[in-house]
């Protein structure tokens, strides 16, 4: 994409009302637009990141047997009354409204009831199970805290998968697979080295749920981390008994701030019971379905990447979720440079390499460099009178100080997708 066609512009100063680094940098870079506290629109560059995150998650969910669908945002009061979660005394962050011709509706704040209600129509025999439907969807929560930019939205985009299994054993086997899939997602998104499987509060049917917590001083959660065994305990369940168990040693556990980037949960029959979601086993005996839920916030993940990987010049995107792989800069408005840069852009684009081409005229090298640093593409390729004299294009990683000169052919060999 040519930058002259990108309507968003970078800005030097962060908006005064943003205190988090992710909102500051993403706003300055033109990735997001704040509609109100906790509500953001995703601009072209931001949407490209979200789409890449979405594809990574989709691939990992499909690998473990997930089937994608889409549940509605407007939710029926009667359905949620079955589980008792319509009541504001029970759930205090619903956005609700009334239909003109009577009746209440709520905007999805989670999905268990919607899935249980739909699956009730399709599950009747042991032959129908196990199943793992999931969706990507906008979720609405009337959050009181909303100072963490896109990491805590009142409207946010998430993936939620629900598992429907015949028994505990089948459920547990899938739960472990989901854990690995989640670790793969965070690894692929570039924050695997800072993200720990964390024991967190469970519910009626399981002692623990598991969170995926990314260690950073700006995190809202407190966890106790054991680096040797690669696990952490959320402070909400941290006590001597839990530690002894889990066979951990109390010194080894270091208090850290962290961001919950994902959460997986064993639900047992908590939702299948109120929805009467049963199947007939091989002997014709009726049994309740065993459920699990597996959530992940895409904006929260994107915001976390910005929080933990950026430097004092701007964002540093991992290649896997960067809006573009290469930021190509034409320096100086001289005709030879523009011609050569255009040639490089055309060759790379034709080869399927994702390039953002800074073809804007009337801008200094310094301005283009600082924009490239702020926007954070993994590679910067510069065409300038000097690079041409030296035989090509100056290629540099976002994280490197100095680049090297390469020819167009070398560039193509380095980046052409296999
Ligand atoms: P928190 O404790 O941070 O409020 P939660 O435990 O209520 O989160 P879940 O219901 O477990 O959140 O949702 C699953 C995932 O959705 C979370 O792990 C997180 O990645 C994401 N998420 C939750 N709330 C938000 C939010 N307000 N904005 C963005 N992402 C969110
Ligand atoms: Mg959670």
TrEMBL record:
Signal sequence interval, chain numbering: none
Catalytic activity from the UniProt record: tRNA(Pro) + L-proline + ATP = L-prolyl-tRNA(Pro) + AMP + diphosphate
EC number, as in UniProt: 6.1.1.15
Keywords assigned: Aminoacyl-tRNA synthetase, ATP-binding, Ligase, Nucleotide-binding, Protein biosynthesis
Annotated protein name in UniProt: Proline--tRNA ligase
Region (Disordered): 1-20
Composition skew (Basic and acidic residues), residue ranges: 10-20
CDD domains: ProRS_anticodon_short
Domain Aminoacyl-transfer RNA synthetases class-II family profile: 38-318
Matches recorded under PANTHER family: MITOCHONDRIAL RIBOSOME PROTEIN L39/PROLYL-TRNA LIGASE FAMILY MEMBER, PROLINE--TRNA LIGASE
SUPFAM superfamilies on file: Class II aaRS ABD-related (SSF52954), Class II aaRS and biotin synthetases (SSF55681)
Keyword 4Fe-4S in record: no
GO CC terms, sorted: cytoplasm
Biological processes annotated in GO: prolyl-tRNA aminoacylation
EC category name: ligase
Molecular function GO terms recorded: ATP binding; proline-tRNA ligase activity
Pfam families: HGTP_anticodon (PF03129), tRNA-synt_2b (PF00587)
């Amino acid at each position: 994409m040519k930058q002259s066609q990108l309507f968003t512009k970078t800005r030097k100063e962060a908006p005064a009302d943003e205190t988090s680094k992710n909102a500051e940098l993403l706003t300055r870079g033109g990735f997001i637009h704040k509609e109100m506290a906790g509500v953001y629109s995703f601009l072209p560059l931001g949407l490209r990141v979200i789409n890449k995150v979405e594809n990574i998650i989709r691939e990992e969910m499909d690998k473990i047997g997930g089937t994608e669908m889409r549940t509605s945002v407007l939710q029926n009061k009667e359905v949620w009354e079955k589980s008792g979660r319509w009541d504001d005394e029970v759930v205090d962050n619903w956005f609700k409204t009334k239909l003109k011709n009577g009746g209440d509706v709520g905007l999805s704040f989670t999905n268990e009831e919607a899935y249980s209600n739909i699956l009730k129509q399709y599950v009747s025999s042991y032959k129908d199970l196990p199943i793992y439907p999931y969706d990507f969807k906008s979720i609405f929560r009337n959050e009181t805290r909303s100072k963490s930019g896109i990491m805590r939205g009142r409207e946010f985009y998430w993936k939620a998968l629900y598992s429907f299994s015949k028994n505990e054993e089948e459920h547990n086997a899938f739960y472990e697979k989901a854990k690995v899939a989640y670790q793969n997602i965070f690894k692929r998104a570039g924050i695997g080295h800072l993200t720990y499987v964390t024991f967190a509060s469970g519910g009626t049917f399981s002692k623990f749920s598991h969170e995926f917590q990314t260690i950073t001083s700006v995190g809202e959660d407190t966890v106790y981390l054991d680096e040797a065994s690669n696990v952490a305990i959320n402070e909400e369940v941290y006590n001597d008994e839990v530690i002894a168990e889990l066979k951990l040693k109390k010194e080894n556990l270091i208090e850290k701030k962290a961001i919950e980037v994902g959460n997986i949960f064993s639900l047992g029959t908590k939702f299948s019971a109120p929805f009467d979601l049963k199947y007939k086993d091989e002997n014709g005996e009726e049994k309740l379905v065993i459920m699990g839920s597996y959530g992940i916030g895409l904006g929260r993940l994107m915001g976390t990447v910005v929080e933990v990987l950026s430097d004092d010049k701007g964002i540093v995107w991992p290649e896997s979720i960067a809006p573009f792989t290469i930021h190509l800069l034409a320096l100086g408005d001289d005709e030879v440079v523009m011609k050569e840069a255009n040639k490089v852009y055309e060759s790379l684009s034709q080869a399927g390499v994702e390039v953002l081409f800074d073809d804007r005229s009337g801008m200094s090298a310094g301005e283009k460099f600082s924009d490239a640093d702020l926007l954070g593409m993994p590679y910067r390729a510069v065409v300038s009178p000097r690079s041409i004299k030296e035989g090509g294009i100056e290629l540099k990683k976002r994280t490197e100080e100095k680049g090297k000169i390469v020819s167009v052919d070398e560039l193509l060999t380095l980046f052409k997708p296999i």
